[in-house]
Amino acid sequence: MKYRIAPSLLSADFARLGEEVRNVIAAGADFIHFDVMDNHYVPNLTVGPLVCQAIRPHATVPIDVHLMVQPVDALVSEFAKAGATYISFHPEASRHVDRTIALIRDCGCKPGLALNPATPLEYLDWALDKIDLALLMSVNPGFGGQAFIPHTLDKLKLVRTRVDAAQQRTGREILLEVDGGVKADNIAAAARAGADTFVAGSAVFSGGDYGKTIGALRAALT
User: Which residue is catalytic, options 30, 35, 38, 196?
Assistant: First the structure.
């Protein structure tokens, strides 16, 4: 299985964001994870399409936009224009999940569905054949630096089975991403449970040496 490390800019130094993007990519990042919070769906306010557009010239890897906003659809085209590769959203935040997935695809991006720790997996059963990424939150969304919720491992195993079946049906690659509290001491357990893409925010950006930190994450996956 190919593993991908996606540093979350939520924990980066916003005063020098372009430099931070270049540095983590040079250190081995596969994706740039871009958290969008609206202070409605989650109790925090972060960044919008203009910031995504500003970092796009610095990003030589896919930008993985995670929309923690409600409503969703109005922002999809804006982030597509701003350079997003993947756009994930929460099913509770959309009035019509299938329509939002189609909108993301029509805008030229790869759609993803994000599930909070207590969100039932049944949402995925009606969407997996149409998405490119399933994102499991291993913390309650809103803030960086939280501890990994252990029952996420059991949920990952269940989603892995669903993803594998969908890939066989569709012939398309569907990534299984985990986000929240991912560190070198738990990333291997998440991989064994089925994750192939790992969002790491504070674990990467608080370490100082990005190459060393990303290297430690990769070493734990071998």
Answer: 35
